């Protein structure tokens, strides 16, 4: 039986641990907080992150990272992107040397401008064929409710991708494989920023024409960046690109969209942050790193630029809108 360590017991780490366990994989979930590990191990619940969800029998949980990692074939990295480097450094002495390292995080590191697979390679020294990413339209609460969900598992080594695919395929969770790690990571990181934008538009009262324009032009700008970084455009047209973009831009369950909506309604960044109750809206930080990355490749990302101006330049959403619509008109 495949053995997995899921490192991070937030919403998605917990939901994906359930998927793996439901698929027949042996799973240990590592929680940063001892009380969360105890709740999962003893009562089969994670009330802070997935309230109301009954977790499967046989799902182990611990607060001790070495215990979770011991003998794992797959190590699932389920912490927020800006904390991945620090967490990996703390775990690196205990990572099994031939395990597949599977990142669930959707972001670009501030400062280094690295994608999560690059951070993982740098910190652990693992070869790129051992590093995989999972990305797609995967709202944790819907997965935990066992609603039909598809995703993409990307790894340069297709044998490893298929092994992870088999370890998490269930009646409600359908993983596809891909070798385009860059495309999946660019899609996952950029869609959070576009979802912030979509939420901002909804928050100031705009309707579906605007929403559709943001999603479509958001796809165009994330595809431009992906291609510049070596991704395949087909990946951005798939589940990890347009699929995730649509789910995140339209769902009230998305933390990024909800965060943007609060800003659109006139709340400050601090007020919106407080309302997340400690959960991550990854796009707030990644809009800076993505924008810097895009500029370094000469790629235009006007929606990302607008989100960055609102979040970090502190301009009102209405002013960002005027700036966007004042851009030079051009062919599609
Ligand atoms: N929630 C979803 O629906 C979903 C779906 C797909 C991908 N993701 C991605 O998965 C990653 C994790 O998201 P999540 O929803 O599980 O996040 P979350 O905010 O619900 O939980 C984060 C978890 O990481 C732990 N953690 C460890 N070190 C941390 C640190 N230094 N700072 C903050 N938290 C730390 C927290 O204790 C917590 O258990 C993100 O990159 C997110 O974009 C989330
Ligand atoms: O809640 P969000 O905005 O972090 O989005 C969750 C997932 O990434 C959707 O696929």
From TrEMBL:
Sn-glycerol 3-phosphate binds at residues 106, 136, 191, 244, 254-256. Residues 180-321 form the Glycerol-3-phosphate dehydrogenase NAD-dependent C-terminal domain. It catalyses: sn-glycerol 3-phosphate + NAD(+) = dihydroxyacetone phosphate + NADH + H(+); sn-glycerol 3-phosphate + NADP(+) = dihydroxyacetone phosphate + NADPH + H(+). InterPro entries: 6-PGluconate_DH-like_C_sf (IPR008927), 6PGD_dom2 (IPR013328), G3P_DH_NAD-dep (IPR006168), G3P_DH_NAD-dep_C (IPR006109), G3P_DH_NAD-dep_N (IPR011128), NAD(P)-bd_dom_sf (IPR036291). Residues 3-158 form the Glycerol-3-phosphate dehydrogenase NAD-dependent N-terminal domain. Keywords: Cytoplasm, Lipid biosynthesis, Lipid metabolism, NAD, NADP, Nucleotide-binding, Oxidoreductase, Phospholipid biosynthesis, Phospholipid metabolism. It is found in: Cytoplasm. Its EC number is 1.1.1.94. The active site is at 191 (proton acceptor). Gene3D superfamilies: N-(1-d-carboxylethyl)-l-norvaline Dehydrogenase, domain 2, NAD(P)-binding Rossmann-like Domain. Pathway: Membrane lipid metabolism; glycerophospholipid metabolism. NADPH binds at residues 11-12, 32-33, 49, 106, 140, 255, 280, 282. It holds the Pfam family NAD_Gly3P_dh_C. Its main location: cytoplasm. Catalyzes the reduction of the glycolytic intermediate dihydroxyacetone phosphate (DHAP) to sn-glycerol 3-phosphate (G3P), the key precursor for phospholipid synthesis. Belongs to the NAD-dependent glycerol-3-phosphate dehydrogenase family. This is Glycerol-3-phosphate dehydrogenase [NAD(P)+]. It comes from Tomitella cavernea. The gene is gpsA.
């Amino acid at each position: 039986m495949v053995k997995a360590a899921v490192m991070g017991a937030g919403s998605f780490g917990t939901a994906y641990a359930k998927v793996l366990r439901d698929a027949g994989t042996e799973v240990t979930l590592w929680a940063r907080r001892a009380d969360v590990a105890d709740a999962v191990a003893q009562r089969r619940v994670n009330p802070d992150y997935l309230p109301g969800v009954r977790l499967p029998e046989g799902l182990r949980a611990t607060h001790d990272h070495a215990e979770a990692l011991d003998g794992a074939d797959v190590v699932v990295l389920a912490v927020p992107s800006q904390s991945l480097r620090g967490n990996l450094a703390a775990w690196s002495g205990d990572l099994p040397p031939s395990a597949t390292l599977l990142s669930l995080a959707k972001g670009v590191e501030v400062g280094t401008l690295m994608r999560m697979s690059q951070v993982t390679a740098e910190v652990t020294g693992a070869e790129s064929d051992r590093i995989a990413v999972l990305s797609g339209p995967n709202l944790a609460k819907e997965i935990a409710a066992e609603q039909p969900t598809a995703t993409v598992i990307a790894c340069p080594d297709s044998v490893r991708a298929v092994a992870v695919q088999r370890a998490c395929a269930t009646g409600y969770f359908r993983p596809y494989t891909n070798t385009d790690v860059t495309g999946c990571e660019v899609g996952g990181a950029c869609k959070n920023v576009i979802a912030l934008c979509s939420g901002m538009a909804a928050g100031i009262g705009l309707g579906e024409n605007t929403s559709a324009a943001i999603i479509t032009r958001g796809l165009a700008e994330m595809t431009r960046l992906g291609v510049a970084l070596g991704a395949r455009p087909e990946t951005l047209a798939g589940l990890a690109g347009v699929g995730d973009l649509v789910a995140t831009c339209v769902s009230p369950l998305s933390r990024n969209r909800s965060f943007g909506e609060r800003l659109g309604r006139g709340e400050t960044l601090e007020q919106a942050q407080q309302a997340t109750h400690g959960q991550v809206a990854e796009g707030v930080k990644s809009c800076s790193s993505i924008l810097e990355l895009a500029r370094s490749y000469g790629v235009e990302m006007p929606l990302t630029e607008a989100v960055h101006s609102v979040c970090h330049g502190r301009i009102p959403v209405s002013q960002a809108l005027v700036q966007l619509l004042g851009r030079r008109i051009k062919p599609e």
